[in-house]
Amino acid sequence: MVDAGTRILILGSLPGEASLAAAQYYANPRNQFWRLVSAVIGLDLVPLEYAARLEHLCAHGIGLWDSISSATRPGSLDTAIRNVEANPLAMLVSTLPALCCVAFNGAKSASIGGPQLAGMGNFTALRLPSSSPAHAALTFEAKLEQWMKLRKFLR
């Protein structure tokens, strides 16, 4: 989900079972993504329908995609991902003229996407703590402190 106005590209690793079943980014209600990005843009997206959430992200210059295009994984944990085929991130970012920031949502996304984008373009790359409920080492507040770094790149 990107367009020519995308300033911030948030890259997940690979959709989990709930997201695949719903055909929506971050569909697991325990995933903190929508709460985190709501705080970043200053608008509560959680109660909105999915299409409205995406509209608000686009209006704020935020795009979504994943570092991985396909893999095998029983369940939804990133640690179980095997046989990875990466998405062509370098090709994608070359089509985004307004891009200022690529944000990796978690370590797995950064480990797959980071090397592809190293030394590319005029954008800031950020590795953010995963919004996944499996990443319980940090509190929501600690994650939010890192995610708020995205604010300076908003439209």
Strand-helix topology:
Elements: E1 8-12, H1 17-22, H2 33-41, H3 50-59, E2 62-66, E3 68-72, E4 82-86, H4 89-93, E5 101-105, H5 107-117, E6 124-128, H6 140-147
Parallel strand pairs: 1-2, 1-5, 5-6
Antiparallel strand pairs: 3-4
Helix pairs in contact: 2-6
Tell me about this structure.
The chain is of the alpha/beta class and 155 residues long. It has 6 helices and 6 strands; from the N terminus they run E-H-H-H-E-E-E-H-E-H-E-H. The strands form 2 sheets. The protein has a 4-stranded parallel β-sheet with strand order 2-1-5-6, with helices on both faces. Strand 5 (101-105), helix 5 (107-117) and strand 6 form a beta-alpha-beta unit. Helix 2 (33-41) packs across helix 6. It is globular, with a radius of gyration of 14 Å. It starts with 7 loop residues before the first strand and ends in an 8-residue tail after the last helix. The model has no long low-confidence stretch (mean pLDDT 90).
> How does the major sheet shape up?
4 strands, parallel
Number of helices: 6
Radius of gyration: 14 Å
**Termini Cα gap:** 16 Å
Mean pLDDT: 90
List the strand order in the largest sheet: 2-1-5-6
Order of helices and strands: EHHHEEEHEHEH
Low-confidence residue ranges: none
What distinguishing features does this structure have?
globular, single chain, 6 helices, four-stranded parallel sheet, 6 strands, alpha/beta, 155 residues, two-stranded antiparallel ribbon
